[in-house]
Amino acid sequence: MSGEWVRVCDSAAVLPGELHTAWMDEVPLVLFNLEGEIHVLRDQCSHEDYELSSGFYDPDEGSIECALHGAKFDVRDGRALCAPAYTPVEHFEARIADGGVHVRRR
Predict the structure, then answer these.
(1) Is 83 exposed, middle or buried (0-12, 13-18, 19+ CB in 10 A)?
(2) Three-class secondary structure of residue 5 per DSSP
(3) Buried b (16+ CB within 10 A) or exposed e, 91-100
């Protein structure tokens, strides 16, 4: 059901400065703990169909760099920060409740 909150992992699985992968239905997700806030993107580079979670997460900058071609995205909203990507990565609303990370289904 659209708009429903779905628990995707325990909140302890996403420690400060780290990333974690999860699934919601059949959608691969990458979760980031940026200064205690959880941000969630589709685990797929918008430039190539390649998983972002294998790239370099920079918690100081709040970005993820795709390991395939070096495209960078802002983990807070999914916007592309440099070429070769120009299209944002899908961003999902997240919250922490009852010891888990919950993501809003679209």
Answers:
(1) exposed
(2) strand
(3) bbebeeeeeb
d(CA 5, CA 17): 24
E strands present in the chain: 5-10, 19-24, 27-34, 37-42, 56-58, 63-65, 72-74, 91-92, 94-97, 100-104
Q: What pTM does this model have?
A: 0.95
Question: What's the fold here for domain 5-104?
Answer: Rieske Iron-sulfur Protein (2.102.10)
Tens of pLDDT along 8-25? Answer: 999 999 999 999 999 999
Give the residue extent of every domain in the chain. 5-104
Give the Cα separation of 64 and 42 in Å (integer).
12
- Could you give the CA distance from residue 73 to residue 92 in angstroms, rounded to a whole number? 14
What would the two tokens of residue 25 be? 């239905």
